[in-house]
Amino acid sequence: ALNLGIVAAGVYYCFKQYKRTHNGRLDYFRAITLGTLTSAIGVSTFALFLFIYLFIDTNLMNLLSNKHPLGIHLDPYMASFSVFYEGLFSGFGVSYLLTNFLATDTPAMD
What average pLDDT score do residues 82-101 get? Predict the structure, then answer.
């Protein structure tokens, strides 16, 4: 739940900044694309950090392996990969929901 709140705040402020710098216009497709890319940048940065950290802290990796349903199949690659894809799809979902509230009907002209 905390992850989703952080992603939602990032996407919201991204939309707000885009509308501020583009005369208050943000069309639907650009909003979906912008929100998804914004969340992808944040999530990929966190997944890379998690990947490196799980290699350094082997005790945490062992604890996760023992407690997680995947058990012996869980390693730093799988953990960071699943966090990346969960965040990517959460970012797309948040972008879709926020776009319906914040996008304007006028296409943004570059």
Answer: 91
